[in-house]
Amino acid sequence: MLFCHSQPESYHQHSASYIREALAPFLKNEEARLMAEHGSKRSPFQYVLCAATSPAVKQQEESLTYLNQGQSYEIRMLNRKLVEYTDISSKYVKSIVRVVFHDRRLQYMEHQQLEGWRWNRPGDRILDIDIPLSVGILEPRSHPLHLNTIEFLWDPVKNSSVFIQVNCISTEFTPRKHGGEKGVPFRIQLDTFTINEHGEYVEHVHSSGCQVKVFKPKGADRKLKTDREKIDKKVSQDREKYHLSHENTVLKECSPWPDALNLTSHSSSSTPSPVYHSSPTSCSFTDDSCSPNQQGELLLAGCCDHLLPSSSPQDTQQWLHRYRFSPFSKLFYSFSGADLLRMSREDLIQICGPADGIRLFNTMKGRCIQPRLTIYVCQQHTRHQPAIKPGGGDIYHALYLEELTLLDLSEKIALLCSITPQQITHIYRQKPSGIHVLVSDEMVQIFKEETSFILSIIRDENTDGYHVVLK
């Protein structure tokens, strides 16, 4: 599914000048450095993060950019017409965006740190993509286990941009949290891949990144203002020791992230990762003589309605597919029914997120949908028919309404009386004064829980239907 927005003509006319203006303070120095390192070969891609750099960073240090938690920031991918670079054979390229630790010490502890964050923030993601604002990206994806990573395809020939949101703050990973502590720096890194002869995006072509710190909402603006005031107070000779502040941040070329190849190989496997849309996952079948419906019946033939402790891992996989938990089938690949049933509600929420975790738990336990209203009715086909009184009382039937509507009430009464809902012409409620009031949705909504009625069925001779009276 292609997520793109039609842009006014002025967007395309001024996009090139916009990018040139954004890169003007950097392009000359960056190109000189890259050409010195790689000869006459220039970087195939260039990315610009639309956020200002800090002026309080010394010349020998890497630039630092401040971001607000949860705010959408644009990363612009440069049009290939603006930069000379090597030929890319595939039409689309895949970019993987990740938020990682900048400090080497924390990089070694990344797994433990992210697991601790996941435990404290169940169901949340460290990095999200703002799809409505993004332009020219294809198949944006996120994996439930990789909270700090997103990926998407894009066409290098066209102007594209992705808006990202970082939901963690730098002080969440400091050892002591007493207030006023210095937050740890992160890195935003993009690894780009082209397609190989097998149709997989695993050929690494470019990586770049920048150093950032994330603050609570509006904290980045205050910190940037403080840094500028601090530098303005210094004499001009001292100011030369610091980087100039720029309105945009150019991501610098770097080495690919170590697990980039593993992640892209995993995401291009036969089991798709969850995507940012609600359309059902399509499946391909190798046997042309079998229709998709027949394939679905074959797949689910051995799958029962309820997950049993005796279910094998294969049965558990079929059960997950049947109840629309396919995105998590690879995660629970080796789980038997007993393994899955042992997991608590909190465990499933932590692994699958709040929505899918709660749904999976309720589906596993076979929980029924609670009715919104329960009423009791005693059938009386004719006004003069004597009531049956076993043990001195009438027999009542319970009607459970999942929806507080006249239609749901008609269906339940029709099922009880062995007729079709279409045969019920009207439903009336007889008041103590003897008047008959036509039942509507509004009246059903004010029925009290566990109200008892005498149900009379009167045949309509003109239409061969029935009038139902609740007394």
Structure explained in plain terms:
This protein has 471 residues and is α+β, with helices and mostly antiparallel strands. Helix content is 28%, strand content 25%. The chain contains 13 helices and 19 strands. The strands form three sheets. Strands 1, 3, 5, 7, 8, 10, 11 and 13 form an eight-stranded mixed β-sheet that branches. Strand 16 (424-430) and strand 17 form a beta hairpin. Helix 10 crosses helix 11. The radius of gyration is 32 Å and the shape is elongated.
Instruction: Give the percentage of residues in beta strands.
Output: 25-35%
Helix content: 25-40%
Structural class: alpha+beta
Average of the residue pLDDT scores: 76
Number of helices: 13
- Structure summary, number of beta strands: 19
Major beta sheet summary: 8 strands, mixed
Principal-axes geometry comes out as elongated
Which stretches of 5+ consecutive residues score pLDDT under 50?
1-20, 22-28, 30-40, 82-86, 263-304, 387-391
Q: What gap, in angstroms, lies between the N and C termini?
A: 56 Å
Alpha-carbon Rg, integer: 32 Å
